[in-house]
Amino acid sequence: MQQRAHHSQVPRDAALRQLPLSTVFIGAAVVATLMSTEYLFQFFVWRHWPWDEVMAGWLEVLRDRLVVALMIALSLSAAARVRARGLRWRSALLAASILAGAAAGEVLLLAAGASGSSGDAPAVLGRVARWTVVAGAVAAMWYLWRRAADVGAAEQATQLRHAQIQRQTADLQLEALRSQIEPHFLFNTLATVRRLQQVDPADGARLLACFVGYLRSAQPALHADAATLGREIDLARAYLSVVALRMEGLLQFSFDVPDALRSQPFPPLTIATLVENAVKHGIEPSINGGSIRVSARLLDSAIEVVVADTGVGLQGTGGSGIGLANVRARLSTLYGSAAALTLQGQMPSGVRASLRLPCASRAVAA
């Protein structure tokens, strides 16, 4: 705890040490000038002396105030260069330096024989006390302002670190989604192409063309930090085209996505993960296969993308696999509570995965 207090105090001490002496002296001169005007507001002075003598007397008062104020400024500057272990020690050091500066200034005036300075101990102590109160108030206001500025800077630094952590988390989640691309899918597809080239070259050529199209669509998605709904749909379509040929008629698929929504920003690989999940856990386990329908629509200020299949339905974990967990985590990082992924069973069979997130105008950048 003491080490944290010490380190948190260093920025404030540094700010005090780096304050230019010219600024300190100018501030002291302003305070001294304002205090000297007290002489000019004593009406009996104007009634008993001509204006030139009044101004001469005010200049003497101003001189005395300047001497004490500058001594306090020098004392504060010296104290600012002394390291303190905490706010209490720093406050005590500043208070002691103000008192010492005021006393030194009064002693200097007495030694110089200033006409406006009384040598009586009560009078000297009274002037020192008044200077201590005034200078302490000014120093306290400045110090509180600096502390508020430091707190604001610390909050900004915390927010920046939080944003960086969110971005790093989003990047890790995206990497996890990228790693979800089924390696067996690639090898099985190549094995199917090889087999079809021997038994049905026409189907093998079609499958190879679809597979090349899938790879072309997948390359940008696997290396991009941002995507559009149109690019995500193209990747899902290319993937399903390959799977449909591999399953030899057991998979049918369709898309219903308005062209106006294709340019909307969309998290990469989210739809691809839902489609792959529907194939792997819904269609492939079914003896009769099934169909997958991907649709998108605009609901108020949100986009809803639905991946619905007629496969075997929710089984086992009920949609809590790693891929879906990564999608949910990424949506939470990017959009907070404004986005959601929900899964529900369909009648007579199948799963409806609904992905809802804000439009571009409300989306939170990663």
Descriptive account of the structure:
- With 366 residues, the protein is an alpha+beta fold.
- It has two domains: 2-160, no CATH class; 180-358, Heat Shock Protein 90 (2-Layer Sandwich), CATH 3.30.565.
- Helix content is 65%, strand content 11%.
- It has helices at 2-17, 21-36, 43-48, 51-80, 87-112, 121-179, 183-199, 201-223, 229-246, 270-283, 322-335, and strands spanning 227-228, 251-256, 265-266, 290-299, 302-309, 340-345, 351-358.
- It has a five-stranded mixed β-sheet with strand order 2-4-5-7-6, covered by helices on one side. Strands 1-3 form a two-stranded antiparallel sheet.
- A hairpin with a 5-residue loop joins β6 and β7 (351-358).
- α7 (183-199) packs antiparallel against α8 and α9 (229-246) packs parallel to α10 (270-283).
- It is rod-shaped.
- Residues 1-12 and 362-366 have low confidence and may be disordered.
- Keywords: Kinase, Membrane, Transferase, Transmembrane, Transmembrane helix.
- GO terms for molecular function: phosphorelay sensor kinase activity.
- Its EC number is 2.7.13.3.
- The chain crosses the membrane at residues 21-46, 66-84, 91-116, 128-145.
- It comes from Paucibacter sediminis.
The top-level CATH class of the largest domain is: Alpha Beta
| Strand tally | 7
Count the DSSP helices. Answer: 11
Number of domains: 2
Report the principal-axis shape: rod-shaped
Enzyme class: transferase
InterPro entries: Bact_2-comp_sensor_kinase (IPR050640), HATPase_C_sf (IPR036890), HATPase_dom (IPR003594), Sig_transdc_His_kin-like_C (IPR004358), Sig_transdc_His_kin_internal (IPR010559)
EC number: 2.7.13.3
Transmembrane segments: 21-46, 66-84, 91-116, 128-145
